[in-house]
Amino acid sequence: MRNIDPAPIADIANNSICLSLGWSGDMEAARSRANEAKTGANIAYFVPREGSVITVDMLSIPARCAASPQRRNMDELLDAGGRDGRPSRTYIHYPNWYSASLPLVQASVKNDDAVYPDQATLARLISPKTVPLDYSRLLLGSGHGFVRGN
């Protein structure tokens, strides 16, 4: 093992490493950057046959912030027209399970099993269990020590 990097996007995109454990969004960002830079990196990712934990990202903007620049950015991201006239899901390669929007998603993204897993893959995903706060802190501390080499 050479290094532990919490965000190895650049190393993956530059073809500097050959194996990484990471989040799908980071892998998609690396794949996109590799394609843009024509690095020759062939980036693929998958859920192991044993399964994996599923996580869901969520973002909320309080109603009092309705006119904020952040709200306008979110509106653009969620808008079916998205950036440059492309649906936002095509641009960022994050799945959107709002079925009414799927016809607007570019076929190459919608048909990518890494972005929109098939039913067999979804069946192997499990929801994480809630753990007591003290245990969660212990795990977090252990992870930090591992990264530091302690």
Please state how the strands of the largest beta sheet are arranged side by side.
Answer: 1-2
| Overall outline | globular
How would a textbook summarize the main sheet?
2 strands, parallel
* Average residue-wise pLDDT: 77
Terminal Cα span: 15 Å
Nearest-angstrom radius of gyration?
A: 18 Å
Helix content: 25-40%
Structural class: mainly alpha
Low-confidence stretches: none
Structure, described:
This protein is an all-alpha fold. The protein has 2 domains: 45 residues, no CATH class; 97 residues, no CATH class. Helices cover 39% and strands 3% of the residues. The protein has 7 helices and 2 strands. Strands 1-2 form a two-stranded parallel ribbon. The model has no long low-confidence stretch (mean pLDDT 77).
List the helices and strands and how they pair.
Layout: H1 9-13, H2 24-37, E1 52-53, H3 69-78, H4 88-92, H5 107-110, H6 119-123, E2 125-126, H7 133-148
Parallel strand pairs: 1-2
Keywords:
single chain; 150 residues; two-stranded parallel sheet; 2 domains; mainly alpha; 7 helices
Concise account of the structure shown:
It is built from 7 helices and 2 strands; from the N terminus they run ααβααααβα. It is mainly α. The mean pLDDT is 77.
